[in-house]
């Protein structure tokens, strides 16, 4: 990693991956020259305190071994406290001059700004680009959680942190092993104390917004903000929360959105699962892409990058038809169709929703696909829609997926009326029609018996 300005106490962030031949077999190194080099290295990067060259026979031996162990642990080597060949090889690598373990104080260098940029100049051929992006983002988030630092990825220009993969040469950086740093390499309290001595603690989280209480799962008037599938799950978004429903498990889990994706806003307005194993979520003029538990870099983006005209200010609902790989976006009583393969809007759109989906003329709050059916949500009700037959097959309460209540019988309780003025469809209760329908069914049953 080449550094734009003074280096700071962020050893895990200065990424430099060196691919070299395997180290030779370990051997004990006790010659005077190696000892002197090791002593100078440890005094520079692990604070001074070792004096004299005859370390084996001096009282400094225990201090020397302790610093060797700290260094070996930092670089992922076998922690032995011995100056073996692998440890010496690391000591001979070019360094930025930043201590691996700093003495906490305000004299250490640091960035003056808390909003920092980083750029990946090139990628290693040994890992997929998406994995590298995610690993680096995860590593930076480890530090963001304990400091006021905010890291933003840029694609061009000079960044505060320039990340490059090299096969050798004098590059300013420290070794970093890509992986899920959040779980495998949690920060120790020493690390937290050190970085906070320079940048301070993270800002206090904003007070919980008023008027967004925890939703009641079986509230008969429950409405949904957005719904999407993701692999074997269905996710229902409401305010700051989401329900997670697994296809093969009856129970449903209510979670905070922030517990999975801290950077996402509350009150998402649309969501769908793309064929590329990603979730796209929308709020206002922006959308985010999610893969697993990570919000992908370079997001949020404007919805207008998808091809929407400037007059479109938000998306009400979205769903991708798995069989055609076409995504439908619903805005008011209109729908757009997006080709996921061509990455462009289809011609001939927008169309009135009721024209493409006869029977669905109301504004769509949320929609998702399950077992070939589309489920359209409006208010506290949902409409099971047969895409092939192009008709509504059932009307249910919005929370019937949570095993709260039996579905309402659409044949008896609802009728669909075309609104001649708006071209929409109105769902209304008609008591006389219910009684008439019930009478016909009763007569037919009597005749069959």
From TrEMBL:
Molecular function per GO: metalloendopeptidase activity; zinc ion binding
Region (Disordered): 198-218
PROSITE patterns in the cross-refs: CYSTEINE_SWITCH, HEMOPEXIN, HEMOPEXIN_2
Record flagged with keyword Protein biosynthesis: no
GO biological process terms, semicolon-separated: collagen catabolic process; extracellular matrix organization; proteolysis
Residues binding Ca(2+) 2, per UniProt: 160, 170
Chain location of the short sequence motif Cysteine switch per the record: 94-101
Binding locations of Ca(2+) 5: 227, 271, 318, 367
Binding site for Ca(2+) 4: 225, 365
Keyword annotations from UniProtKB, A to Z: Calcium, Disulfide bond, Hydrolase, Metal-binding, Metalloprotease, Protease, Repeat, Signal, Zinc, Zymogen
Binding site for Ca(2+) 1: 126
Modified residues (Phosphotyrosine): 299
GO cellular component: extracellular matrix
Hemopexin-type repeats, residues: 215-264, 265-310, 312-360, 361-404
Cofactor note as given: Binds 2 Zn(2+) ions per subunit.
Cysteine pairs bridged by disulfides in the record: 218-404
Domain called Peptidase metallopeptidase: residue spans: 107-201
Binding site for Zn(2+): 96
Signal sequence bounds: 1-22
Keyword Signal: yes
Cofactor(s) for this UniProt protein: Zn(2+); Ca(2+)
Family: Belongs to the peptidase M10A family.
Full protein name: Matrix metallopeptidase 27
Organism: Jaculus jaculus
């Amino acid at each position: 990693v080449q550094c734009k300005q003074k280096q700071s106490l962020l050893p895990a962030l200065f990424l430099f991956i060196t691919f070299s031949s395997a180290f030779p077999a370990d051997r004990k190194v006790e010659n005077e020259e190696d000892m002197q080099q090791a002593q100078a290295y440890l005094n520079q990067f692990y604070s001074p305190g070792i004096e004299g060259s005859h370390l084996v026979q001096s009282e400094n031996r225990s201090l020397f071994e302790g610093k060797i162990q700290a260094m070996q642990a930092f670089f992922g080597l076998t922690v032995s406290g011995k100056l073996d060949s692998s440890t010496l090889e690391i000591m001979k690598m070019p360094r930025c001059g930043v201590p691996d373990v700093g003495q906490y104080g305000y004299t250490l260098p640091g960035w003056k700004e808390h909003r920092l940029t980083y750029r990946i100049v090139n990628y290693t051929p040994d890992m997929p680009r998406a994995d590298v992006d995610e690993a680096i983002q995860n590593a930076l988030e480890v530090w963001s959680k304990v400091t006021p630092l905010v890291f933003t990825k840029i694609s061009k220009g000079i960044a505060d942190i320039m990340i490059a993969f090299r096969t050798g040469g004098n590059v300013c950086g420290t070794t970093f092993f890509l992986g899920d740093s959040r779980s495998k390499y949690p920060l120790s309290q020493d690390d937290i104390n050190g970085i906070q001595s320079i940048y301070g603690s993270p800002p206090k989280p904003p007070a919980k917004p008023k008027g967004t209480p925890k939703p009641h799962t079986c509230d008969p008037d429950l409405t949904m903000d957005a719904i999407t599938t993701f692999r074997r799950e269905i996710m229902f978004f409401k305010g700051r929360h989401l329900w997670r429903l697994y296809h093969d498990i009856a129970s449903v889990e209510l979670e905070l959105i922030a517990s999975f994706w801290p950077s996402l806003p509350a009150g998402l307005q649309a969501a769908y699962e793309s064929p590329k194993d990603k979730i796209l979520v929308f709020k206002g003029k922006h959308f985010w892409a999610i893969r697993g538990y990570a919000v992908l870099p370079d997001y949020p983006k404007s919805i207008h990058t998808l091809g929407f005209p400037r007059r479109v200010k938000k998306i009400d609902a979205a769903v991708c038809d798995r069989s055609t790989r076409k995504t439908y976006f619903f805005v008011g009583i209109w729908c757009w169709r997006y080709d996921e393969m061509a990455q462009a809007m289809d011609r001939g759109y927008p169309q009135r929703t009721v024209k493409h989906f006869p029977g669905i003329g109301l504004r769509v709050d949320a929609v998702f696909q399950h077992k070939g059916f589309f489920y359209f949500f409006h208010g506290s009700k949902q409409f099971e829609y047969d895409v092939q037959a192009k008709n509504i097959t059932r009307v249910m309460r919005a929370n019937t997926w949570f095993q709260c209540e039996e579905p309402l019988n659409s044949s008896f309780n609802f009728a669909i009326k075309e609104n001649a003025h708006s071209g929409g469809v109105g769902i209304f209760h008609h008591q006389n029609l219910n009684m008439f329908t019930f009478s016909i069914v009763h007569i037919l049953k009597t005749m069959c018996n």
